[in-house]
Write a structure and sequence with these properties.
Blueprint: E1 5-10, H1 13-21, E2 30-33, E3 42-45, H2 60-66, E4 71-74, H3 77-92, E5 98-100, E6 105-109, H4 120-135, E7 139-144, H5 147-156, E8 162-164, H6 170-174, H7 187-195, H8 201-206, H9 209-216, H10 218-227, H11 257-277, E9 282-290, E10 296-307, H12 310-320
Parallel strand pairs: 2-4, 7-8
Antiparallel strand pairs: 1-6, 1-7, 2-3, 5-6, 9-10
Helix pairs in contact: 3-4, 9-10, 11-12
Length: 321
């Protein structure tokens, strides 16, 4: 029996939660984000705001210039956590095999669970109806025989969509799509593939495997399999967190070394307190720095001995800075 995997994605989640609480916001350009006076960024934008070029991660100052009439709402994560918890409980009523991906999306393995509903399509409709009835939020669902196909399908049918890719039809579905649709193909990989004359998933799938692995190594083998609709990953509950981090956005740009190191020390203190509270030690230390033009760089180093000592972690972070 072929597997039946759903990818369920709540549409414009943060905005949708706010619209469910205040129906007057529906049909209007709405932005959820941080404080526009303190370098906040867009966390979520309604579909009415997106034609203006607004997207998640954009500085709020730019979003307001692009769409002055947009309604700006400060993010309230306690609301979103509550809605996410209710979302996952709904999914658990349909299958025990759930793999959450953040607040607003999840994989669901429904193999064998679809029989009472007649078909996977009808089961997906039942899930969408429950979500809409109980959360007042729409969801998009992709159905496939594996994770990668289900995820691409849900992205293509947003908002409030349902797209089922029947077993055996994966290649025909994927072939005409741009390679950027594949998980694991970021901007750099897409550009490298373009230099090889590869722009569609079908073109990638038709290349010999050794051609891809010579250029991209292990990740090349993965994206080559994905391009052929092959993805053996199981739907699994999330494991234990493998990293602990803290971050900070400054109100103003700065190159003041003393100021940066002082804040870095505070972040290291918070991380180490969390490490000690969980009785853990860190082996790898990394810092991520974002410039005024939003260029972001990451540097990391592996310690000779794992540590939860603030001064050890800070000295390493200082070196990376």
């Amino acid at each position: 029996m072929a597997r039946c995997i759903f990818h369920i994605d709540l549409d414009a989640f943060f905005v949708s939660v706010e619209q469910a609480l205040n129906p007057e916001l529906k049909g209007k350009p709405v932005i959820v984000g941080g404080d526009p006076e303190r370098r906040g960024v867009v966390a979520s934008a309604s579909y009415e705001a997106r034609p203006f070029g607004i997207h998640a991660g954009m500085p709020l100052s730019k979003a307001r210039r692009l769409c002055p009439q947009a309604i700006l709402i400060r993010a309230n994560f306690s609301r979103y956590r509550d809605a996410s918890s209710r979302f996952m409980k709904i999914l658990a009523d349909f299958s025990p095999d759930i793999e959450p991906l953040g607040f607003d999306e999840a994989y669901l393995d429904v193999t064998g669970c679809e029989e009472p509903y007649g078909s996977p399509h009808q089961l997906a409709r039942a899930i969408k109806e429950r979500i809409n009835k109980e959360l007042k939020i729409t969801a998009s669902v992709g159905i496939g025989t594996c994770k990668v196909v289900a995820k691409i399908a849900s992205a293509l049918c947003k908002p409030d969509g349902l797209l089922e890719i029947a077993p055996g039809k994966e290649q025909a579905f994927l072939n005409p799509l741009p390679v950027s649709r594949l998980p694991g193909v970021g901007e750099k990989t897409e550009q490298s593939l373009k230099e090889m004359g590869i722009t569609t998933i079908g073109e990638l799938a038709s290349l010999p495997l050794d051609t891809i692995t010579r250029r991209f190594g292990a990740i090349g083998a993965v994206i080559h399999s994905y391009a052929r609709g092959i993805d053996d990953r199981e739907v699994e509950a999330p494991g234990e967190a493998k990293s602990i981090s803290q971050q900070l956005t400054f109100a103003r740009d700065t190159l003041d070394r003393n100021f940066l190191e002082s804040n870095l020390h505070n972040l290291c203190q918070e991380v180490c307190q969390e490490l000690r509270s969980q009785h853990k030690r860190a082996k790898c230390v990394a810092i991520r720095l974002r410039y005024a033009d939003f260029k972001t760089i990451t540097r990391q180093i592996t310690l000779q001995e794992a540590s939860d000592v603030t001064q050890v972690i800070f000295a390493t972070a200082q070196q990376l800075l």
